[in-house]
Recover the amino acids of this structure.
């Protein structure tokens, strides 16, 4: 079946650098995309979302880019901090307030 | 403002037993979704409840069932437990009458271990 996938299982960056986490999706009908952060022992925490009628959305230190042509989603974290160390998931939803389909996650490790 | 709460935190069962997990949604939310997260994997959608009815269901067997109460809280029941049911079970809540997108708030999860 169709699913959301991630390119890299682990990403290691230096503190202060920018991080980019990538995600590919396969369903062109997906209309809503979300990035979640999950720390050990906790549930996923919403970071930022984007609708399919947008290409870019910015939050505090985070930016999500959506390329519908190649079905690609990315999360950019500026000035990465040790507190950003976690597993990051992209997720998609089709048609509004329904099931989220998650990828397998990317572990971000921030080196001091 | 209370967030999503789940109970119990941890649970150990043996194969063949039955288990009930509980979830209280974020204050003001009316929709509850359940997800199963195996170790090292992303969460997988089990089902969603709205107005006390199952509105959408993922690819899970009938051994997985649920309920939503008038106060919007919810239970997840799993019968005839298998070793493969060991996972973190996450509850997420959202507001049906909110913005058109689908921001779901997750609880801390219940860690189920089946021996």
């Amino acid at each position: 079946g169709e699913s959301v996938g991630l390119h890299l299982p682990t990403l290691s960056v230096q503190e202060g650098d920018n991080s980019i986490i990538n995600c590919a999706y396969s369903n062109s009908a997906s209309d809503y995309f979300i990035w979640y952060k999950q720390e050990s022992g906790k549930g996923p925490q919403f970071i930022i979302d984007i609708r399919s009628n947008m290409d870019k959305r910015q939050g505090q230190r985070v930016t999500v880019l959506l390329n519908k042509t190649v079905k690609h989603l990315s999360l950019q974290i500026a000035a990465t901090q040790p507190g950003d160390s976690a597993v990051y998931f992209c997720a998609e939803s089709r048609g509004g307030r329904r099931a989220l389909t998650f990828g397998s996650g990317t572990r971000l490790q921030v080196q001091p | 403002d209370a967030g999503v709460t789940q109970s119990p935190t941890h649970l150990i069962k043996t194969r063949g037993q039955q288990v009930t997990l509980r979830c209280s949604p974020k204050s003001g939310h009316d929709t509850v979704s359940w997800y199963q997260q195996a170790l090292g994997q992303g969460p997988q959608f089990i089902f969603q409840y709205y107005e006390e009815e199952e509105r959408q269901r993922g690819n899970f067997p009938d051994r997985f069932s649920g309920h939503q109460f008038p106060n919007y809280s919810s239970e997840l029941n799993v019968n005839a437990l298998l070793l493969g049911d060991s996972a973190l079970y996450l509850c997420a809540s959202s507001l049906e009458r909110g913005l058109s997108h689908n921001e779901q708030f997750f609880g801390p999860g219940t860690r189920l271990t089946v021996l």
